[in-house]
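ATP synthase complex subunit 8: structure, please.
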Amino acid sequence: MPQLNPSPWFFIMITSWLTYTLIIQPKLLSFLSTNPPSNKTSTTPRTTPWTWPWT
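Here you go.
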């Protein structure tokens, strides 16, 4: 059963995870958020009921 042989895919998996963890992830985490969260309180808009012309 060749799928039980870890030799072909295990090295590729470890290499890709190390590349992601050591190279790509720090570069992605260094970006600043373009829309930082704010502490503004949300206000609910004041709505008026709609008057239907046929009632």
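Notes: The CA atoms of residues 1 and 15 lie 24 Å apart.
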